[in-house]
Design goal:
alpha/beta; Nucleotidyltransferase, domain 5; 24 strands; 20% strand
Amino acid sequence: MFLGLDLGTSELKALLLNAQHDIVATAHAPLRVHNPKPLWSEQSPTSWWQALEAVMDDLHQRVPEALANLAGIGLSGQMHGAVLIDADERVLRPAILWNDGRSFAQCEALTKAVPQLSDIAGNLAMPGFTAPKLQWVRDNEPDVFAQVRQVLLPKDWLRLQLCGEAVSEMSDAAGTLWLDVTKRDWSDTLLEACGLTRAHMPRLVEGSAPSGSLLPEWSARWGIPTNTVIAGGAGDNAASAIGMGVGVGAAGEGFVSLGTSGVVFVASDQYTPNPAQAVHAFCHALPNRWHQMSVMLSAASALSWAKRTLNVSNEGALLDLAATLPAPARAQAPLFLPYLTGERSPHNNANAQATWFGLTATHDTAALAYAVAEGVGFGLLDGLQTLALGHATGLSVVGGGSRSDWWLQLLADIFQLDLHLHSGATTGAALGAARLGWLATLPQTAANFERVCVRPPIEKTFTPDRGDITLHELLAKRHARFRALYQATKPLMVAS
């Protein structure tokens, strides 16, 4: 039996997987994000541990026999967050999260200080990454910075609590801007630029390799065998890829994640950075594998904002409302820029802002809902067009947004690619984490990677209606207007 623990932004998810690839049980615990100031996004690591305790206590109560047969644990989590601990392993301040935009000035300073940064890290300096967050702490909270003895990513702080060791792995570490992504090792140059050394960093392992063993106190509490191995794990998107079997076989395999953020992920057996277009080039969770990724900050979260704003009961109801807009009316629908919290790919603009454009007295809530669903699709397409897809004709799709058939069909028409919905698509990163826990119990061979990281069965495929030339031309025309709208309004987007 294998356990995946996925520390997301809005919840912590646990998933139990057996050796027949069956999901035995899942558990969830909600999390809250705190926004004390504009552009700030923080969480208390204590809340993560409380959520982990809640899901593990739940599983222990419901499926104790499964936990009694546990062999491996995998961790996945939201990337880029900065957990600062002192010499006594006490957390010094709330964790600064991936969608925090306060450090844009530090990004500029870091880029000037290390001109070769993008060559080493494979990425531009963006406020979402970890390194500028530490620069911000050094500039604005010097007393806190002086006490920092170690910097951990969110899932790796949970690992510290579970096994007592400070360890990270390549996929998550690649999102710090401190990793030499080619060498899969910390960069002394990038660390020095932030006033840090290797002593501040956790030990690195591959995502499929063992990182430590569960502490006896937790084994006793949850009825888990002693010395249960904990895998390196992965950042949330790399873990989702492992759950979808993406990145084990041919280059060019990829997926779209419709979670809080929106991600287009393409795996490769080569390191292919493209910082000029704000593409993320990271290590994959398997040895000698990398991936490209475009990230938009508001995907399903844009739907959540819209349902609150339009007083709709939930995101599913919002998409159902959007689906009622007749096809002729879609041509006259307003455009929506989905940049509610700034944007990463391809704009790298922390000050990017959202808007409905083209409103008239004829528009109703259905038109506004449609504009939001379409606008997220256009934002994803902008990122997709910067990636090295090769000859790929389709992508898998994961995340909570994959529950809407109507939205997936719209996205297929926007992308002009097949979208494949697999069984267990909403489990995403938790399934991948469980698989990495499984791999950590096995020899690190290609045969084992292929045996464990199988592609889940396809339940549905959404194919673009290539015969409807009118629809294709309409979406292409509206996408062109969408891009022009961003460029026209960009000079007006200023920090709050």
